[in-house]
Design a protein that fits this description.
heterodimer, A: 645 residues, alpha+beta, Penicillin-binding protein 2a (Domain 2), Beta-lactamase, 2 domains, nine-stranded mixed sheet, five-stranded antiparallel sheet, elongated, disordered C terminus, B: 131 residues, mainly alpha
């Protein structure tokens, strides 16, 4: 072996240096990895570890035709760190002001306020700058007021106070409703210190439409009422999160992402509400509210074959996008009158006694009653019969068909007496009165039906005509639905389907039968009797729709104040369905306390509610393609004549 | 200790050490390159994810805007503003056909054929008018 290039001395020195170097490195590594390990790990953990929450998108609320009733939109809360602003960016401030929806002086005031006193109200802002610029970017809608969730400080102070005791502001809000496109334009300006936080905000594209059904989510992302609250379990989704590390510039090091749990977006809820039907109903409500100035009013439209609600609207109502701007006492507008308020139904309630008596075979439509009587014997005690309405006086016996068609109070009372208190009470409960229908939204109440044991002597003669009982509009609607559906009480339903983010149906709801109340034959007979109401032979020809057999019943109930019925204050209603022979749509119109000066006399149901029924029905016929009833279908005169008219 | 053997051993150690350092360096450089590539790919994925999320948000924004524009009130305003004169059909304009439309169309066509045949088979005479 050759001697090599090194002398003994040099080799030893070189080898020693190499070994020492390795030894030094080894010692250092042991020092770092063993002795200082925990301290260094803690430092790294603190400095580099980050957990990022990925917010799930709240699901949409859709109508029966996939129109969006509520959706979530990404908006940007725009802010500024005044400490990072550069003088050379000042020339871009006018463009920034325009994009942020501020005037230049307002923007300049925020950007130039760089410190504030810790004890001062940290609001380096002008009134407009601090106002909530909640721009949905859809219709130019802008809030001008702050809501309860928006009262947080608009500026954040971080850092030590200076010699004057003021702290530097490191975040001041510019606007909290910047759209994605506007934010992209702001980013293009490349102004240092301007940045935004992305948040999801709930948007209701149709504003007031179906407000009481949909409900709303507040600024703290908490569902408050309506389907938003009821179906929150499906809608809200599950936030995801990422665990990783960031570098010295606070930028995530994607390669060190150790855990990544993706967000699961919320499911979409498809309602039975049809936006077009709802609009028709709300337009009609607006018309009658303008015309008769009722204290409140409700219209409900449903498919009586399934119990699904097609439209439900109340007046007064509110704008879902401006729920926080109702003004003093405006909470009343949030009330879902259709399920949360009770009223004495009046003559509409006569369907219960008539259907009960027919169902038990006690009477036929031709059975007559003397409606001139002043009193009647009940369990051996003479009881006074109710008076007929002022406009009605019957000097001849009335058949059951006439009692319904002409709305005789004395006749209804005699039907109730014929049934007996216990059986009549059972029918009242079977029709769904006295207990909630199970409607999912609106804080439903069960109505008021006293048990027989608490009835006084007159109750059996008054309840059949709709007094001494309190119901909700939806209960009355569902009760009429019993006749339309062939004798079955169906649970009113709103939700048709639940869909996941990809559109797959994960849950579907169908017709929900509560119970059979009357036989199908009785229901058919009742439908025929009720179809006389909306004819020239009945008391509500105003509800008649040419070419269609309309079945329904009017109601005009005096309002009671402190236990006494008062004049000139009525709840007027018309509840019905059509075609009577093949019911496809049920409509309830209920107006509470119309201005009788505007009505021009007593606000009878046939006068103020029946025309609305007809008007809505006429619009629904072409939209829902409602065919005339079976009887009419047997006379297809137009088609047989070759389609010419 | 034999000097030549010691030198040979030291030389071998040095040579192996250098080779080892070279190999280790290569592995280190390779590892760094690999980590760089992982970092690059991860960041590229992150950018793509952000881009997808951004596009999704834009889609949602557009969807919400479309929903707003499809509101019945807005459509009615447009109808008035643009003088479109669109109105929903009245029941009187609707002809309800309850029979089988194919049979009806066939019958209509048959009637047309019969008329054409009858027209073709008609003999007409031109009669001169007397002055």
């Amino acid at each position: 072996m050759s001697k090599g290039f090194a002398s003994n001395y040099r080799v030893v020195v070189l080898a020693s240096l190499v070994l020492l170097s390795f030894a030094g490195l080894g010692v250092r590594l042991v020092w770092l990895h063993v002795i200082d390990r925990q301290e260094l790990l803690d430092t790294i953990e603190k400095a580099r570890r980050q957990i990022t929450i990925e917010h799930a998108r709240r699901g949409d609320i859709l109508d029966a035709r996939d129109n969006i009733l509520a959706t979530s939109r990404s908006l940007i809360d725009l802010g500024v760190d005044p400490q990072l602003l550069r003088p050379e960016d000042e020339k871009k401030w006018p463009q920034l002001a325009a994009l942020a929806g501020l005037t230049l002086p307002e923007l300049a005031k925020i950007l130039n306020t760089r410190t504030s006193r810790p004890d001062a109200v940290v609001a380096p802002k002008s009134p407009a700058a601090g106002s909530l610029t909640f721009d949905f970017g859809l219709g130019g809608r802008k809030d001008e007021e702050k809501d309860e969730a928006d009262t947080a400080d608009d500026a954040t102070q971080v850092g030590e106070p200076d010699a004057n005791g003021e702290r530097p502001i490191q975040w001041a809000k510019l606007s909290d409703g910047i759209s994605e496109s506007a934010y992209a334009a702001i980013q293009q300006l490349k102004i240092r210190g301007i940045y935004g936080n992305r948040v999801y905000r709930r948007v209701y594209p149709h504003n007031e439409l179906a407000a009481h059904v949909i409900g709303y989510v507040n600024r703290a992302e908490q569902p408050v009422t309506g389907i938003e609250s009821f179906a929150d379990f499906y809608l809200h989704g599950q936030d995801g999160w990422m665990e990783g590390e960031k570098d010295g510039r606070q930028v995530e090091l994607a390669q060190f992402r150790s855990r990544d749990v993706p967000a699961a977006d919320g499911y979409s809820v498809e309602l039975s509400i049809d936006a077009v039907v709802q609009h028709i109903v709300e337009a009609e409500l607006a018309t009658i509210a303008e015309k008769y100035r009722p204290e409140k009013a409700t219209i409900i439209v449903s498919d009586p074959r399934t119990g699904f609600i097609l439209a439900l609207a109340n007046t007064p109502t509110f704008d879902l996008n401006a729920y926080n701007k109702l003004g003093p006492g405006g909470e009343y507008r949030l009330r879902n009158i259709a399920v949360a308020d009770m009223y004495e139904p009046g003559s509409v309630f006569k369907i219960v006694a008539a259907a009960g008596a027919l169902n038990d075979g006690l009477v036929t439509p031709e059975t007559t009653f003397d409606c001139t009587l002043e009193s009647i014997m009940v369990d051996g005690v003479e009881r006074k019969l109710p008076r007929e309405d002022a406009s009605d006086h019957f000097d001849h016996p009335l058949s059951v068909a006439d009692i319904i068609a002409l709305s005789s109070n004395k006749g209804a009372a005699q039907l109730g007496v014929l049934l007996g208190a216990r059986r009549f009470y059972n029918y009242v409960r079977a029709f769904g009165f006295g207990s909630p229908t199970g409607f999912p939204v609106g804080g439903e109440v069960g109505g008021l039906v006293h048990p027989v044991e608490k009835w006084d002597g007159l109750t059996i003669t008054r309840m059949p005509m709709g007094q001494s009982v309190e119901v909700t509009p939806l209960q009355m609607h569902a009760a009429m639905g019993v006749i339309a559906s062939g004798g079955i009480l169906l649970r009113p339903q709103l939700i048709r389907r639940i869909r996941d983010a990809s559109g797959e149906v994960v849950y579907g709801l169908g017709r929900a039968v509560v119970r059979r109340v009357i036989s199908e034959a009785t229901a058919r007979t009742m439908a025929q009797l009720l179809s006389r109401v909306a004819s020239d032979a009945g008391n509500a020809p105003e509800a008649a729709i040419p070419g269609y057999d309309v079945a329904g019943k009017t109601g005009t109930a005096q309002k009671a104040v402190n236990g006494h019925y008062i004049e000139h204050h009525h709840v007027s209603s018309f509840v019905g369905f059509f075609p009577a022979s093949n019911p496809q749509v049920a409509i309830s119109v209920i107006l509470d306390d119309c201005d009788e000066n505007l009505v021009g006399g007593t606000a009878f149901g046939h006068k103020v509610a029946a025309p609305s029924f007809r008007h809505i029905g006429e619009q629904l016929i072409p939209y829902l393609d409602i065919q005339p009833g079976i009887d009419d279908a047997t006379h297809p005169a137009i088609a047989m004549e070759g389609g010419a008219r | 200790m034999k000097t030549s053997a010691a030198h040979g051993f030291v030389n071998q150690v040095l040579a192996y050490t250098l080779v080892g350092i070279g190999l280790t360096s290569s592995i280190g450089v390779g590892a760094v390159w690999m980590r760089e590539q992982i970092s690059f790919t991860a960041n590229a994925n992150k950018v793509l994810e952000a881009r997808i999320a951004d596009l999704t948000r834009r889609c949602e924004e557009t969807t919400a805007a479309i929903a707003q524009e499809q509101d019945a009130t807005v459509l009615l305003q447009r109808n008035t503003l643009w003088n479109l004169g669109l109105v929903p059909p009245a029941e009187g304009q609707v002809q309800r056909v309850t029979e089988d439309p194919t049979e009806r169309l066939a019958a209509k066509r048959s009637r047309g054929i019969e008329r054409e045949t009858a027209a073709a088979g008609t003999v007409s005479f031109r009669v001169a008018e007397q002055p």
